[in-house]
Every structure is written in structure tokens, then in C-alpha cells.
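Researcher: If only I could read C-alpha cells as easily as an amino acid sequence. Walk me, if you will, through where the backbone shape changes along the chain. I have put the entry right below:
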Amino acid sequence: MAFPELVVDVHTVEHPPTWRPEPLKVTFLTLSADVSGENLLRAFQWARNAGLPNPRVISPALLRWSSAFHPAFFRSAQGWSSRQFSSISFPTGHFLNDWGRREKFHLQSLVFLAYVTLSAAIIQNRWSTGTIASKLDKLWHASDPGRLSHLHEPGLRDEVRRLASAPPGPDILLGIKHLFADALRVLSGDIHASKVSMRQAKLPPALAERFGFLGSLLHSVAKIQAVIVYGSSVSSEIFADYDIVLVVEDADATLKALCGTTPSFNGKELNISVYSQDELWTMQLISGDNLADYGLCLYGEALLPEKTTELLLARNFSFGMIRQRQQLGMIPSAQDNDDPTDDRRNLYGYFVKIPANVVKGTYGAVGQRWPKERVHDWLRERCGFDPVAEQHEAINGDRALPLARSAVATMTALLRLNSELSVVQITD
């Protein structure tokens, strides 16, 4: 079958067995130019019709930006692609001034994004065998000694195999959480940050009423050291749920006590993340924000790192690149599934929101705390992308096209943000 006009190169890579017993083939389709969501979907459709295994569509912008935020992939692609792609440079003196640091930075971001969803998976019962497999894949990938040995911990792969062979359930997720926490501790050892203490704030009556779940939480959860809220419940009058960090003496005991409870207050879900003080510090070292700058401490006290704006901007761009790769990876399964009862529809809806997360996080890094309405307006005006309409379509109708449009919008948003904030220098 002849290539469609927009595909200039096709290359299949066979990865050796991991904790999975079979090798995995992935096909990379290089595009001649950056395209619309509709044309991106055409490339995936062509790959499916051609019977190509696990297609991944690579635009020129994605590959160019990978030189800064996923250099191992960039160098591999240079070896098999028939085209020559320019790379990205950082401002003079930037801490990501060599390939080794860039690769470690990518690895930190990848492990962080997989780690921070685990509490919700346990508490809200948001997990499946696919969730477990995805987390194990990332741990295996991160511990690859053939990369830069940043996380080549003896015994890690044996632990991944052991967890993979155990019956799926919350205990497996707890074991995975331990491995990710250990990985982050190793990967964050060279990150420097100042220390700030976040203490209980005196709330006006309206906010005390809004966060009226606090008393019940303190009564039902043992040995809480701090309760911190953040997100739209703090910054907006209208919000859909509560984002909460619990700092506790025994994170495992707390997660087991809350497992599957799906707590709520006044009809709104409590999205609770549970950490010990040490785990919170390590996680926040690699986060794309400074929690003390925008969160609200309802109870107790927690010690948090304060990172530089330079680090926060680079981290948010790194997150955006990883999430776009994940969006592209989800499109083939979305194409193959038109079942309106599919339990992955909320997952598709979440990934369609990625451009909004990128914009909000990046502006937050420079101290601009935008409400979601302003973020949505920015995406409509600067990227031609309507996150509300596309998320509705992804949940209730077509899956693949909203994901494709969102993947394109993620890169477009990064380009627009970079034109304003000059995080990287793009060369041709």
C-alpha cells in the first residue's frame, strides 16, 4: 500500500520482552509537516488499514521538541528516519545544557506523572488491569540499564515481575506506589530547592463552610499531619470537585482505610492524594508547581520545596510533551472502540483536557493563576481548540477525533506559550 501524501517515512521497532513475555512491535509514521487533527487521524487510519502494529504518528514539531524533552527518542529517530530534523536549544546557562541532564529530566517527569494518580486509583477505585499494566510498563522503561542508568536499581525489575504475577487489586497498586516513590527519591537527589512551611490558615466563614468536610476527615483518618486543598475549589466560586493532599504519619494505613470509599461532600467528589511528609517533599521536588504558592492549608503544617521559575517552566513543557505522546498512543484504541458504554470514555475525556492543563500549569509557573474559563478562551483564540466541546464529544460521542484534535492542540499550545515565554530556542 502506497504512503498517503502526508506520511514520508514508516519504521517498525521491535522491543524485546519485558515483564510481558512477548516482544512488542511499534510502528512510527513520520509526517512531512504538522497537520490538523483530521489529517492526523487519516494517518492513523491508513496505518490501521495497512495492518501496521501499534502505530505512532510523529510530526516534525514533536520530533524537534523531543530533542529537548525526550532526547533518547530523538536520537533513535535520527538513526532510522530518512529525514534530518533540527533540534532545540536552551538559553545560555540553562540547567538542561547537556543530553544526559535532559534524559534524566524526561525520566523524572515520566515517573512523576505515573505516580501522582495512584492514590486516586486506590481511593476512588479508578483502576483496571490495564492501569496496573501501564504502571508496570513505566517502571520497566524507567529502569532500563541501556538508557543512562539513572534508575538502574538492583532488584527493581524482579519486583515488577513479582507484582505482574500477583492477583490484581489494591495491594498491587500499593506495591507499585512504593516502587514509584523509591524511584522518585533516587531521581530527585540532585534537585535543589529552598524550604517553606505551609501552616493552617484561619478561614473566613464562607470558606469554612465550603470545606466543611474537614471535621469528618480528621475524625475518620488517623494521624493526619496536614490537610491541603488546591485547584478550583480554592480559586473559583464554581468547581466540580475538591483536590486534597493529606499528609499523614502512615500513608499505607491511610490508603488501606480509604480504599474504595470514593468520598464526597455536598455532592462533590473528594480527590484525595495521600503522602507521608518525606513522600510529599520528594513528589513536590518534581512537580510543575509550588504548592505553597496556591494551595490552602486547612489543618496542621507541612514542609514544601520552593522551586525556581526556570525549573517550573521546563517541567511544565516536559509534562506537555509526555502527555502528547500518551494522547497519540491512545488514538488507535479509540478508533477501534465505538461502544458508548465503554468504561474508558472518562479517560478519553481527561486526555482531551491536556492542552488546558498545559496552559494553566505553564502560566501558573510564572505566577499567573488563571481560572479555567480564561484558559478555555485562550485555547479557542490561540489554538482554535474548544476543550469543552471536544471533551463532551470524547465522553459522549466519537473518541478518536477529539483526541487527535487535542494532541495537535497540545503541541500548538506549547509553541504559542514558547513564543511568549521563550523557554526554548527553536532552530530550523
